[in-house]
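User: Before I run my own analysis I want an independent prediction to cross-check against. Here's the chain; please return only the structure tokens and, at the end, one sentence I can use as a sanity check.
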Amino acid sequence: MLPPNDAPAAATVATSRWKFVFAGDILLAGSATPELAQTGFASPFTAFASILRQADLAMANFEAPIATTAPEWPDKRFTFQMPRAVTRALADAGFDVLHLANNHIGDHGRWAMLESVHALQQAGLSPCGVGRNRQAAAQPVLVTLPNGLRVALICFSNTLPEEFWATTTQPGAAYGHPEAVSAAVRRARSQADLVIASFHWGAELMREPKRYQRDLAHLAIDQGADIVVGHHPHVLQPIEWYRGRPILYSLGNFAFGSYSRNVSESALITISGDGASVTDVAVLPLDVYNPRVVFHPRPLPEAAARRVAEFLFGSTVTRDTAGWFRPAISPMNTHKEGHHGHNATD
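Assistant: Structure tokens:
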């Protein structure tokens, strides 16, 4: 776990090895409230805490504000809030950066968004994608790894309601307009050795990315992003390589307070590299079917896990002794400028 660093030191990029872990949507509330009152907010992450803590950086989507007031949008079909105690549980589990720019962060009003930022920062976490105005919301989170590598993360929402988006004078989430994404990636690129662009986008329960998701992901990489991460559909979407860089279109749910029978599988994904190069992508498929796991995700059995991994990679896979899957033929070695295994070209 690493704190953000506003003045990162220069990195020796050629010898800087790193490993990042990405998880899906987190909502420690809703239907999970009675269970977590018994087991504690940290319990959904117990099985994966060593993975999260050992990573150089661990990131997930934080799907609701920290709030105690009534919802500001009583006519909204679903409104969520989480208690402040979840922030310490997430920090203790090993998370570093949380994506806040999503379709629930404004459920309790604009000022609750800023209160959420403050609460997460007080727990030692780095919130991303929400700020006091449009410019602040799009500012990168800057992290310096122990080896000196500088990492910048930028986060956007492409989901409604529009009222949650920051304006020039009002706090909110950073909206992922192409021009804003381009400017933010270029700004982040000027400050860091590695750039991660994260998006809340797409359609719920849709298992393939929409055209605009692909366009935004490719735009981000064209402008200098090294990794693109996405969420919101609640289900997994395939991994794509574009110009030798990975796009994780949707990680599904991780620990999410819903008994939906439409959501059963997710994954933790590790991306490793050396300096500015990605050298490895591995997935650990998860059982997140809450009628069965009751908000405590766990690794899928091998046969089911292999099926999920092959869907994500679009190819045959190999499995290591710890249960992580990789493509049988590494796309990093075979299609540097555009692999769609799921792959894309210019």
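Sanity check: The first strand starts at residue 17 and ends at 27.
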